[in-house]
Amino acid sequence: MFQFFSYVIQLPIILGGLQFMLSSKKVESILYIFLCIFGFTSNGLLKNAYHQPRPYWVEDEIIGIGCNMEFGKPSGHAQTAVIIYFSYLFIFYPSTFRLNNLQVVDSEDRNAEEEPQLNNRLVTILKVFAFLCIIMTGLSRVFLGVHSIGQVVLGWMFGVYIVFNYQIYCHQFLLHYIKNQLQIKCDDDVKFQRISVTVSAIFTLIIAIDVTLLELNLKLFNQNEKEVDKWLLKITQCKQAEIGQYTKDHTNVLYNACFLHGTLFSFIFSFILGCFFSQGTFNSMEYYNQMDQKTVNFKICRLLFFMPMLLPLPLLLIQTYNVYLTAFLIFIPVICIESWYITIMYPILLKKCGYQIKGEFLEQNLVEEMELPLV
């Protein structure tokens, strides 16, 4: 049961991706995925900052079942569970939270795929279900031996801090800003210019912090070789590795794994840049009306255009034993390829193959045939 709650946390993220592929709530889906990724990124930075071992590394009486190999404070599952479950409700169903007194959706969206009006009983059930999932996710990490109670509680605190600050100060601004940018059709205006500069600056800052924390862990923290070797032995035993003992140079252990988590912000960075280079438009009402008229075969064929995103993924299996090579030559490039395919190549392929519809996300201008007047 605890393993179920530990792994089911991935389901809402998958649902967010499906919302992007299948529904007209594409901007909401993007913001939801961005918020989840920010949670993963911040957790990687925090773990390297605290550099605290997991319970099953240091206590012989504790048997690790989860076998996580990066540092444990704060709990990533506890932190992201708060973000993932609660943000899914207030982003896709804003009426479930009283903090969303202002209408989150535009007047254009009201004519398209309106938010289902949920009765108070169902709203209460959804909130209680989200709360229970968050609690059970945290408790599961303690039961599996990969986190202490203090690490879980701290994860919950950071998760609450992030999600409520985003909800109160950021969500409506970003939602309306991105939608307004996507609706600009004048060739004289450059879309996503300001946000591209801002996100680029944030990305540079995060990478600088990530590298600094990694170097501190390499050269200042964790200098007790016997203690580190004990941690690595515990990880090896838990994983039942047949390739020999994990070393501190392995990119999936200790501070190296946390460093790679910190680079996940590159998806947000590259996605916004892709929108900037694409200069496409999006009309959710028109998209919804057009898709509603299409056949099932047409919709399935459109989904097949996402299949090329699987091609770069095997590169992530390459093990270099140098975290900088892995991050900057494999990990970040693969993330950039994935996001640029969605924002640049995917709309172009749809247009070339005749599957682009009016109102498409990042729609490339269709050339309409002009009828010549009869003489």
TrEMBL record:
Residue ranges annotated for the Phosphatidic acid phosphatase type 2/haloperoxidase domain, each copy included: 29-167
Places the protein is found: Endoplasmic reticulum membrane
Gene Ontology terms: cellular component: endoplasmic reticulum membrane
InterPro entries per the UniProt record, alphabetical: PAP2/HPO (IPR000326)
SMART domains: acidPPc (SM00014)
Membrane topology: Multi-pass membrane protein
Chain ranges passing through the membrane: 6-22, 29-46, 82-101, 122-144, 156-175, 195-214, 253-279, 300-318, 324-349
Source species, domain of life: Eukaryota
Keywords, alphabetical: Endoplasmic reticulum, Hydrolase, Membrane, Transmembrane, Transmembrane helix
Main location: endoplasmic reticulum
GO molecular function: sphingosine-1-phosphate phosphatase activity
Pfam families named in the record: PAP2
Protein name as catalogued: Phosphatidic acid phosphatase type 2/haloperoxidase domain-containing protein
Lineage, top ranks: Eukaryota, Sar, Alveolata, Ciliophora, Intramacronucleata
